[in-house]
Amino acid sequence: MDEEDDIFGSDLEDEEKKKEPMREEDKKFLFRRELRTMLYGFGDEKVPFDKTLETLEAIVIDYIKELCAKAMSVGKPERINLEDIHYLIRRDQKKSSRVKDLLSMSEELKKARRHFEQTKMNL
């Protein structure tokens, strides 16, 4: 997927991480930073227990795996499209509206980046 097709965009820091191969121990903590931030936002301690983060991460990864497996069976075989995800969450109002919000925010960020790059090139 090239940058123009990336629906959530990426930071330079993320692009540098993609170039490096992932080690097995790094795969274990894919969402640790985000989960820690979310827990703190919902009233937990600034540094939550490691076991809490491990449990939540296991739940998140299981959910993502299940959703992807269902999306593979809904749409074209061996391929997941955004429409497949929309189809699977269409009855969950919270998830559906959150996906729409994130996609519109992503588009706004892409436009702002393009505008910034054009302005930077003109200077």
Automatic annotation (TrEMBL):
<dbReference type="InterPro" id="IPR003195">
    <property type="entry name" value="TFIID_TAF13"/>
</dbReference>
<dbReference type="GO" id="GO:0046982">
    <property type="term" value="F:protein heterodimerization activity"/>
</dbReference>
<keyword id="KW-0804">Transcription</keyword>
<protein>
    <recommendedName>
        <fullName>Transcription initiation factor TFIID subunit 13</fullName>
    </recommendedName>
</protein>
<dbReference type="GO" id="GO:0006366">
    <property type="term" value="P:transcription by RNA polymerase II"/>
</dbReference>
<dbReference type="Pfam" id="PF02269">
    <property type="entry name" value="TFIID-18kDa"/>
</dbReference>
<dbReference type="InterPro" id="IPR009072">
    <property type="entry name" value="Histone-fold"/>
</dbReference>
<dbReference type="GO" id="GO:0005669">
    <property type="term" value="C:transcription factor TFIID complex"/>
</dbReference>
<keyword id="KW-0805">Transcription regulation</keyword>
<keyword id="KW-0539">Nucleus</keyword>
<feature type="region of interest" description="Disordered">
    <location>
        <begin position="1"/>
        <end position="23"/>
    </location>
</feature>
<comment type="similarity">
    <text>Belongs to the TAF13 family.</text>
</comment>
<feature type="compositionally biased region" description="Acidic residues">
    <location>
        <begin position="1"/>
        <end position="14"/>
    </location>
</feature>
